[in-house]
Amino acid sequence: MLYIAALIVALVLHWFGPLPILRAWVGRWLGAALLALGLAIVLWVAHTLRAGGTNVDPLLPTTAIVTTGLFRFSRNPIYVGLTLMYLGLTLVFNTWWGIVLLVPLLMTMHRGVVQREERYLEQKFGETYRQYRSRVRRYL
Length: 140
Description:
By secondary structure, the chain is mainly α. The chain has helices at 2-16, 24-51, 77-92, 96-125, 127-135. The protein has five helices and no strands. Helix 1 (2-16) runs parallel beside helix 3 and helix 1 (2-16) runs antiparallel to helix 4 (96-125).
C-alpha cells in the first residue's frame, strides 16, 4: 500500500507541476521493461513463498523461513520487485516526482516494514533466522 500511496502522491504532484524525466516514448518503453521485471520478481517470490509453506501476505503470520529461489540472494526480494515496479510506473508516467518520493518511500519501507519484520522473524525463528540473515543480504 505504501508504494501505491507514493505513486498517487507523485501523480497528483505531476498534475499540478509536471516534471518530465525523458521523452515520453523512451520513458514508456524503459518503464514498461522495469514494470515487467518487477512484476515477474513479485510473482516468482509469491510462488516461492507458497511453495515454501508460508503466507505471502505480510499481515498474516510467517510459518517458515524460505531460503530458495530469489531468497538465496535477498531476504526481501518482493520489496525489490515492488520498487522496480514503482520505478517502472514512474517512468511510464514520466514524472520526476516519483523519483523524489522514492527516498522517503524506501526509508519508510526500511524502518517501518523491513526492520519490524526482521525483529518478528528473529523472535519467532531465533537462531535459524540469524544464520539465514548472516548469509543473505537484506536487499541486493
